[in-house]
Amino acid sequence: MNPLAAVGKSLTSRVDGAGYVFDLLLRTFLQLTFLPRRLRFLLDVGFNAGVRSLPVTMIVAAFAGAILAMQTGIELKRFGDTAILGTITSLSMCREMGPFITAVILAATVGSAMAAEIGTMKVSDEIAALEVMSVDPVNYLVMPRVIALALMCPTLTVLSNLIGIYGGSIIAEQNLGVSSVLFWSSAREALTSSGTLLPKEVYVGLFKALVFGIVIATVSCAAGLRASGGALGVGLAVQTAVRNSVILVIILGFIITWFFYFLAG
User: Fold this and answer.
1) What is the DSSP secondary structure assignment for residue 53, as one 8-state letter?
2) Angle between the 200-225 and 143-175 helix axes, to the nearest 10 degrees?
3) Are 103 and 127 in contact (CB under 8 A)?
4) Are 123 and 227 in contact, with CB atoms under 8 Å apart?
5) Most CB atoms closer than 10 Å: which of 109, 155, 175, 201?
6) What pLDDT digit, counting tens, does each position of 191-208 carry?
7) CA distances to 7, 24, 66, 238 from 226, in Å
């Protein structure tokens, strides 16, 4: 195959994969009327996605907040303006770091597990068996996972924000000479100064988390459903799910921030 043909084949494969993911997302939303029938499965997936991912999410969020406060505080200390450290840390965690950290962890843990589970079912012809029994795999397998992750990602993001800000407050007090009272008062003022029920940084961050959860679940399920070739195919499906999920989280995070803060004002 000449280089031009190889590039064309690669582009065709990627466009086909993107179309499959988008089609799967639309089919999933069309199956929402059957959600009450899948409530038990939805709760099981939500438990696996939320409760079992909670410890690692909290650890990463605490150190992310601490690193953010440390790096920002070092520069602010040069100008003698460490009093605003709580403002910067809280806004950064709620707007960007909290949703991003949570999404990456869910992609690496829950998304990979979804791709492996559905991929194993695909290569062992269990998906074909469901179709023979007139059971829609999207209704039975994909829809509960997408909804569960769409609910759990914002929930974990709220906890990540709180733990990250708390981790930043410890570093601010212990290493940068900023009292916890000053840190938390500035953080509270930054998040309540808008006068609305939810500050813009909070609801933008939660909207990001909602989008991230839907994207991670859909991409992971699509990778599993397209798996082929036995155990090697399942491994490649997991790799594809995590890679594409992280890439989309970064790109969509930028697009959402650009839309809310530059386009919509």
Assistant:
1) T
2) 130
3) no
4) yes
5) 201
6) 886 666 678 888 899 999
7) 21, 11, 40, 11
